[in-house]
Amino acid sequence: MGVASIPSSTGPEPKSAVDLLPALFLGLTFVTGVVDATSYLGLGHVFVANMTGNVVFLGFGIAGATGISVWASLTTLAFFLFGGVVGGRIGNAFGGDRYRHLRVAVAIQAAFVAAATVVALSAGDIHATSVRYPLLALLASGMGIQNAAARRLAVADLTTTVLTLTLTGIASDSRVAGGAGATLGRRGLAVCSMALGALVGGALVLHVDDAAPLAVATGVLGVILLAVTDRIRPRLLARAGGSAT
Question: Which domain holds residue 104?
Fold first, then answer.
């Protein structure tokens, strides 16, 4: 991770500071795996973060495939776009300070995911239409905000959601393909983070309950939010800078 000069509302960061965003984005990638495992396994064949899959599922549903809901896919797509609009407005308002931008975006995203956790905990059956669609709306909105922030902040090789280009980069830029393979580590960590999130989310849905993975996702978002506060972030940056020198 290279040295970066980060704009901050609290003054300049230490010169030796290492950018925390890559590590925080890996945490967001883990959250993606958790919530998509929850939505796919617990709320029917639908994703709340990976919209490519939803567009494909929408086509399958229109074609008449069983077990796929056209309305669930449309609802998720619509609220993901709503989250993207919210995320875009956050970026326009706080784009001059990357950490403040991420802090606001994650705070609102965490509120959506926490609300979904409360709904899942209080519901007797999350498959009921009156519960399923609010959960899809809340989770998709939160993930739309996350994706908008990730796109605006543009940390190399870490989109937090889409891994197709990441995997393509691993292969096409590898030494086997004649490339330098310089970013294999970060790309590999992104793949592992999402896979681990999917593993944790899937295990909790299948063996515990549907609310458990949402509680985990809320907790991880809370840790990320804490890490970008003005009180904690300078300490983490100083420690990271010291370990890098």
Answer: 22-238
